[in-house]
Automatic annotation (TrEMBL), chain A:
Biological classification of the source: Bacteria, Pseudomonadati, Pseudomonadota, Alphaproteobacteria, Rhodobacterales
Protein name: Electron transfer flavoprotein subunit beta
Complex and partners: Heterodimer of an alpha and a beta subunit.
Domain of life of the organism encoding this protein: Bacteria
GO biological process: carboxylic acid catabolic process
Function: The electron transfer flavoprotein serves as a specific electron acceptor for other dehydrogenases. It transfers the electrons to the main respiratory chain via ETF-ubiquinone oxidoreductase (ETF dehydrogenase).
UniProt-listed SUPFAM superfamilies: Adenine nucleotide alpha hydrolases-like
Ranges where the Electron transfer flavoprotein alpha/beta-subunit N-terminal domain occurs: 23-215
From TrEMBL, chain B:
Pfam family, one: Acyl-CoA_dh_1
InterPro entries in the cross-refs: Acyl-CoA_DH_CS (IPR006089), Acyl-CoA_Oxase/DH_mid-dom (IPR006091), Acyl-CoA_Oxase/DH_mid-dom_sf (IPR046373), AcylCo_DH-like_C (IPR036250), AcylCo_DH/oxidase_C (IPR009075), AcylCoA_DH/ox_N (IPR013786), AcylCoA_DH/ox_N_sf (IPR037069), AcylCoA_DH/oxidase_NM_dom_sf (IPR009100)
Similarity-based family: Belongs to the acyl-CoA dehydrogenase family.
Domain of life assignment: Bacteria
One Gene Ontology term of the molecular function aspect: flavin adenine dinucleotide binding
Protein name: Acyl-CoA/acyl-ACP dehydrogenase
PANTHER family: ACYL-COA DEHYDROGENASE, ACYL-COA DEHYDROGENASE FADE28
Cofactor or coenzyme needed: FAD
Xref: PROSITE patterns: ACYL_COA_DH_2
Domain Acyl-CoA dehydrogenase/oxidase N-terminal as annotated: residue spans: 5-112
Domain Acyl-CoA dehydrogenase/oxidase C-terminal: 228-375
Matching Gene3D superfamilies: Acyl-CoA dehydrogenase/oxidase, N-terminal domain, Butyryl-CoA Dehydrogenase, subunit A, domain 2, Butyryl-CoA Dehydrogenase, subunit A, domain 3
Domain Acyl-CoA oxidase/dehydrogenase middle: 117-216
Amino acid sequence: MKVLVPVKRVIDYNVKVRVKTDGSGVDLANVKMSMNPFDEIAVEEAIRLKEAGTVSEIVAVSIGVKQAQETLRTALAMGADRAILIVAADDVHTDIEPLAVAKLLKAVIDAEDPGLVIAGKQAIDNDMNATGQMLAALTGWAQATFASELKVEGEHALVTREVDGGLQTIKVKMPAIVTVDLRLNEPRYASLPNIMKAKKKPLEEKTPADYGVDVTPRLEVLKTSEPPARAAGVKVGSVDELITKLKDEAGVL
Amino acid sequence: MIDMHQDIRDAVTRLCADFPGAYWRKLDAERAYPSEFVDALTAQGYLAALIPEEYGGIGLGLSAGAAILEEIHRSGGNAGACHAQMYTMGTLLRHGSDAQKARYLPGIASGDLRLQAFGVTEPGSGTNTPAIKTFARREGDRYIVNGQKIWTSRAEYSDLMILLARTTPADQVAKRTDGLSVFILDMKAAREAGMRISPIRTMMNHATCEVFFDDVEIPVENLIGEEGRGFRYIMSGMNAERILIAAECIGDAKWLIDKSSAYAKEREVFGRPIGQNQGIAFPIAQAYARMRAAELMVHDAVRRYEAGENPGAEANMAKMLAAEASWEAAEAAVQTHGGFGFAEEYDIERKFRETRLYQVAPISTNLILSYIAEHVLGMPRSY
């Protein structure tokens, strides 16, 4: 079985995010970029399925600027077999919207015919949490979101999902779209020998036009602002004072 | 232009994120060796970067080694516990026989064998290497070694040592650099047969030792190259060593400058960030400019080294300038952080102690200046 793993190049999770002075978005100039951490978990899961003999080939796909090929090389160094880069933007500040990404992934699915798509539940840059679900709608495939455990049994995938009330296990017929949550696994490092091998693995470059998809934005960002700074707390002298304040000032008692 | 190996740098940074300041502070407090960190680096293949593919390594050039070590230091870690494997191995690689290489290099590449002890310096000779007293006397198919080494780093955590010893007394050779030989020493066997290791407590956690040899036997097949030519073999590895150490200094400087500038932007005193005061901002900016200049010298030395030139001058200058830049950055970092610069949890004081070493080891600044004066500018030898 072939597995498709979409990966997104996002601002590194260790970087302190700064909003551009004109409020049009987050400043990404000369900022360290990495693979979306949820996508790393997806790549790791695909590799584990391959190591278990369930999967024969892992294809990583990224949609965005040309520099996303670095993200794909990371996926290849971790253990993906080949990669497809769809160059859909020139400016690193251009974010391709979930629907456009889902349409492109649908087109890649039509060409590649995978048995399973494993994707991150969301990207840490815009937290849309929409692409996997939209892709399931476009393909008509089953979807299993927020996976914390994944088992493939014959024609079906058993997926444990992290839901508000606890854990829910569902059985979906494949082909299916699985989006993964934080606790599914701990992704491996890309080792030095594998980084070198990844340079020789195939990386195909495409454009949205190759798939006949229009990526023109449908959403308009009105404003981006920093979260409000946390105000200083107040020290209280006694339990009585605390209770008085909770009653009179906070109004929670 | 040299290959910057951005992909390798990213992967090293990622690995180092699992070994944060708290990890290094704990080791410091316990004076412990960073075994987990070295194991992780080994498992991911980084210590085999410069070993040829035919011996199980990756076969990369010096630029990759420099990138790996710089990023370890840039992440706030310290490669001192294992960097010697990268350059010590070069003596074996360049001058060892095919049989020696086949016997040791695959184990070094896989991490089963650690070759990271370099027994050169002695208490009575210091940088005057030809004056060493340790003597290896040939008896049949063995050499019998007697003497003492000092500042032998990582001796307790190494399976093999590259050992320099006299094989012909200094008064019986034409040139004082003749009559020295290099051996590859099996540390485990030697410890059972007359070699004693005594750790030295220092101001930083660097696992350095004195090593005493009392009739330690080394089989003749462990002689590297020809007897009596050892000084040249050791010197041929110095350029790589200096360039790699310089890269570590650049990493230290970048980490310190990152910490200082971030703190100067955030810390508010008198109602504004302290970085708004030029008295704070300028030393950090100055350290940055010096670091960038030193980095260019490191890159030039790497480029020449990879092109097959003998970059003795550039390697020495890169080490000197980078060590000075990292020290200047450490000074600025302590001054910027004020009292917090002394608090262990900020890691500034640790880096301050660590990066000071590089103006002394592996070669002191005065010796580099002597080298430039004599070999580049043609002035009379001063020592």
